[in-house]
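queue> pop job 88
queue> type: inverse folding (structure -> sequence)
queue> payload:
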């Protein structure tokens, strides 16, 4: 059974940092792309950052502030979020899809994530001003 479990969300003041984790199981981790997506109330889901064997991509809104990383031995992907802004407030989801179907990565990561097959339950991030 495929499982993606996010953790690390919470309430933080603007300018602060959080590190989200996505623990994966049930599939061959190093053959998959993992993406972080977020959805704010009343808004469409959007891609934040993705990672696969070809590299990493970031939404323009988070470049220079967020860093995605992974550890194949731990089947885990992290999203380190620095210099958080109130507009980063959203539910954050990690998602997985076979790397073969996530090419080009920047394209599939920039949408709402319809290419991604598996999704976690999400973790809430709230940034206060």
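queue> result:
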């Amino acid at each position: 059974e495929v499982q993606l479990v996010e953790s690390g969300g919470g309430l933080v003041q603007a300018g602060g940092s959080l590190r989200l984790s996505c623990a994966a199981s049930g599939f061959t981790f190093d053959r998959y792309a993992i993406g972080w997506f977020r959805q704010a109330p009343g808004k469409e889901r959007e891609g934040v950052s993705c990672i696969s064997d070809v590299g990493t991509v970031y939404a323009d809104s988070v470049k220079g502030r967020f860093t995605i990383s992974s550890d194949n031995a731990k089947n885990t992907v992290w999203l380190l979020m620095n210099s958080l802004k109130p507009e980063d407030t959203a539910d954050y989801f990690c998602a997985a899809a076979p790397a073969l179907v996530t090419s080009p990565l920047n394209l599939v990561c920039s949408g709402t994530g319809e290419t991604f097959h598996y999704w976690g339950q999400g973790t809430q991030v709230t940034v206060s001003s």
